[in-house]
Amino acid sequence: METLNLFREIYRKFTGRRGRPSRDDLAAAFRFRYACFKDLLDSNTQLLNLIADVEEKLSGRHVFGMSYVRSQAARAAFHTFRMIKSLDVLSGHKYPVLYRVLDVINIRIKHQLGKRKELQVTELVLPLSGVTKEMVDWVGGKNAHLGEAAKIGLPIPAGFAITTRAYVDFLAFNDLVDEINKQKMEIDPADPQTVQQVSEAVQALISGAQMPPALAEAIHAAYARMTAEVGEAAVRVSMRSSAIGEDSELSFAGQYLTILNVPADELLPAYQKILASLYTPRAISYRLNKGIRDEDIAMSVVCLQMVDAVASGVMYSHHPFNVRDDNILISAVWGLGPYAVDGVITPDTYRVAKTGDLGILDMKVACKAVQLVAKSEAGLEEIPVPPEMQDQPCLSPDQIRGLAGYGVRLEEHYHGPQDVEWALDQAGRLMVLQSRPLVLQAPTGKELQDIPAVSGYPVLVEGGAAAFPGVGCGPAFFVQGDEDLLNFPDGAVLVARHSSPKFVMVMPQAQAIITDSGSISGHMASLCREFSLPTLLDTKVATQAIAQGQIITVDAYTCRVYAGQVAELLNHQPLRESHLKDTPVYKILQHVADSILPLRLVDPKSPEFSPDHCRSLHDLARLVHEFSYTEMFKISDLVSAREGYALKLDAAIPLDLFLIDLGGGLTGADPDAHKVTPDQVASVPLKALLRGMLREDVRAREPRPVQLSGFMAVMREQLLAAPNLEERFGDRSYAIISDKYLNFSSRVGYHYSVLDAYCGATVNKNYITFSFKGGAADDLRRGRRVRAIAIVLMGLDFSVEVKGDRVDARLQKYESPVIQEKLDLIGRLLIFTRQMDMLMTSEAGVEAVAQNFLQGNYSLDMGAIAGSLETTPGSPAAGDSSNRRAGK
To answer: Under a CB-based contact definition with an 8 Å cutoff, are residues 806 and 753 in contact?
Structure first.
């Protein structure tokens, strides 16, 4: 009833009148409901990405401040609220309790955020020598890292930080906050043109504003101190953004402005341009989509003496994706560094041992025909490299070892690998320009080919995605159901077809996890990061390539699984230490994260899977995500059986199928038409379903061989059954579609099935839910038929539940091609089941019919079935769920 009331409410909103709504009115109502569902899926994805970022910060390898903690807490609450609101609308306001649970968690988070006194920095400008990591909220990450480098005695250019206090004062002096907010009200997130217009307007406001006299004076005074320090009358500078949250999950790295070789008279205009870069179209859109408030962003600027570089480049203190290569990698080009960073020139590469005397292990010198240099007055230019220098190394052996020494010291200071930008000045001094954490990534494509497999060990699996990098070794243990989790041995490697949050039960004793499919931003991946458990997902073939009980080594860096114990890998795992765990801001994040990250609701069948047991935002998101499938599953209940609301599909299938397009589901359809053809279907999931339903071997028109006893039993049940609408459904079937969405409601005689699916580019959003109920046979045959369908669905990797004469199945978080393949098979199954009741004359027929379908025999030929019955070793007892057999 609640669902129907919701439909009437939406209908009144869109029509504003009584009476029969038009086809467009009904479609608009469905589009509204579908939009809520898409918002829910979007916020679920955003929240999971946010959780992954907070987990990465808790590793202690990144500098962050209270601004980051507050912003992420606010965003997490925003996306959780958006999910709850979307579900509440979908359900007809059945879940008001979820708002109350969210309030309780938010109060707890606010209490934790209010515990720490803020470090108050009132200065507009700070010398880099006085900057530390504790000031990150006031100077941003780039400044904080440079200050730390100076603190441990590494050479950095002379310079200063223009603080976020200066940014706040700049906006206040020009009364820009209210004006920017007024401009932002003109933004329509669905209309990129409005974002572009607001971006141009806001950037013009900032660039054209007046510089506060106190700020101008502070910048000029800092510049004068810098020129005195270096002993030059006129120093050109590089000015780089150092925004709060930059180089983290909060913002697009590299989107804010950097201006090189700035003369003294351009300092203030350049500063204003960098402030204005906070409001590029892409930055505005990103914050809108991520739920980032403008109150949580601020711009600091790095001002460094411009290094007139002889050579520049990048240094990694560890190989970025090869766990076994714990050496220093240096790349170098002549001139300024952008040509190395942007890949304009193939750089020299030097590989240096991290221990002993920092010996040079390998040197590859490239031909470097051009270089980027600073012009004498201002700006940059490209010039040719002198011919005699083009094939010469940019650094001498002593310089290579000296630079490698910087890398070692930075790694020791930060307790983790570093990504360092450097330059060699005209006086032969090596300078550190920037240092940030180097996050080791799993290699792909050509990168993987460049890392040879460890010799002497067969490679069982190669490929997939690392949810958490690392190495684990132990006997393979296959998990297919809850019983397997209860019997999981300590020290084993969990192998499964698909990821599941239920695996948290055994994560403390597991050495690693490998699955055929799954998403690195899913719920289970988050749990694996929480337990620091090496995890390899989406391998496609793990359950086929690995044998039960086989000793294997999982390398979740290179995405390989080896047979046997590979000592070379187990001895080369990088240390995961933290240099921030004793800081006040880290402890605040830990406490706040306790109300955001932990996932306790892992089993939807558990009695504890309820609002009352939600203790974190992650719990709430998991609950809402699960309930949303059920609510979207009911969408077909809103369809009226009367004509005029939908377009009939003109196709050779045994259904009267009518389509309601939410947008993008059909192409080339006449607005006044009453029919469409399969060629006009653009909906990805419906096209896949129809492929299965239209197969010649499934929909063969000739009469099927029928067993007489089965036919008479079905006919007797039809004749005796009361014509009750609760039992007998109408003959119309409906498909509510968009480009990526399908809700298919099939009512054929006494059979009733509903299929709900989403099939797009984001793995986390993709799913299929399928329910089948009814049948004209007696209870015994209907039960057998349901068990046969359950065996088929489990053989197709669905999770399945059978209750009476109803089967419910789900498959989720697979890539689009896999979802389409499964929908094709369900299309075949829908046609295949139409005469299945007649074959359910014995328990042996349950397994035989299911195995015939899984083997591609759709004829329902009694001879073939009889042959299968003769070879079927035993048959399940009546009432058996068939779960164990179907899970093979």
So the answer is: no
Residue 354 burial (10 A CB sphere; 0-12, 13-18, 19+):
middle
**The pair of three-digit structure tokens given for residue 35, joined into one six-digit string:** 């939009």
- Measured between alpha carbons, how far is 754 from 744 in angstroms, rounded to an integer? 6
d(CA 72, CA 78): 10
Q: How many CB atoms lie within 10 A of CB 140?
A: 32
Q: Do 33 and 90 form a contact (C-beta atoms < 8 A)?
A: yes
Residues 6 or more apart whose CB falls under 8 angstroms from that of 827 comprise 688, 689, 690, 691, 692, 693, 694, 695, 698
Token pair, residue 549, equals: 């009980």
Q: Is the pTM of this model over 0.70?
A: no
Please give the pLDDT value at position 562.
96
d(CA 821, CA 693): 13
Strand pairing category for 465-468 and 471-478: unpaired
> Which two structure tokens, joined as six digits, stand for 180?
């920017």
Alpha carbons 844 and 841: distance in angstroms, whole number: 8
Neighbours of 855 (CB within 10 A): 11
Query: Six-digit token pair at 300?
Result: 């600091």
- 761, with CB counted inside 10 A (0-12, 13-18, 19+), is exposed
Q: Which two tokens stand for residue 571?
A: 């001895």
- Using an 8 Å Cβ cutoff, are 462 and 555 in contact? no
pLDDT in tens, 732-777: 677 888 899 998 877 654 567 888 899 998 888 889 988 887 654 5
The pair phi, psi for residue 240, each rounded to 5°, is -125, 145
The amino acid occupying position 876 is P
Q: Are strands 560-563 and 647-649 parallel, antiparallel or unpaired?
A: unpaired
Average pLDDT over residues 614-625: 92
**Position 714 confidence tier, pLDDT thresholds 50, 70, 90:** very low
Tally the residues of the chain: 888
Quick one: how far is CA 573 from the chain centroid?
A: 26
E strand segments, 335-457: 348-352, 360-364, 370-374, 380-384, 418-424, 430-437
**Rounded to an integer, what distance in angstroms lies between the CA atom of residue 782 and that of residue 764?**
35
Angle at 113 between CA 108 and CA 118, to 5 degrees: 165
Q: Is-contact 88 94, C-beta < 8 A?
A: yes
| Three-state DSSP class for residue 419 | strand
Taking alpha carbons only, the member of 541, 594, 534, 540 closest to residue 566 is 534
**CA of 46: how far to CAs of 51, 95, 529, in Å?**
9, 22, 17
* β-sheet bridge partners, residue 752: 747, 773
Strands (E), 242-310: 258-262, 301-305
Q: Pull the structure tokens for residue 139.
A: 């100077």
> Identity (one letter) of the amino acid at 348?
D
Whether the CB-CB separation of 256 and 246 falls below 8 Å is answered with yes
Contact (CB, 8 A) for 167 and 300:
yes
Ramachandran bin of 254, using left for φ above 0, alpha for ψ from -120 to 50, beta for the remaining angles: left
Give residues with Cβ within 8 angstroms of 31, minimum separation 6: 662, 663
Beta carbons within 10 angstroms of residue 600's beta carbon: 16
Spatial contact of 492 and 548, defined as CB atoms under 8 Å apart: no
- The helix/strand/coil state of 792 is helix
**Residues above pLDDT 90, as percent of the chain:** 33
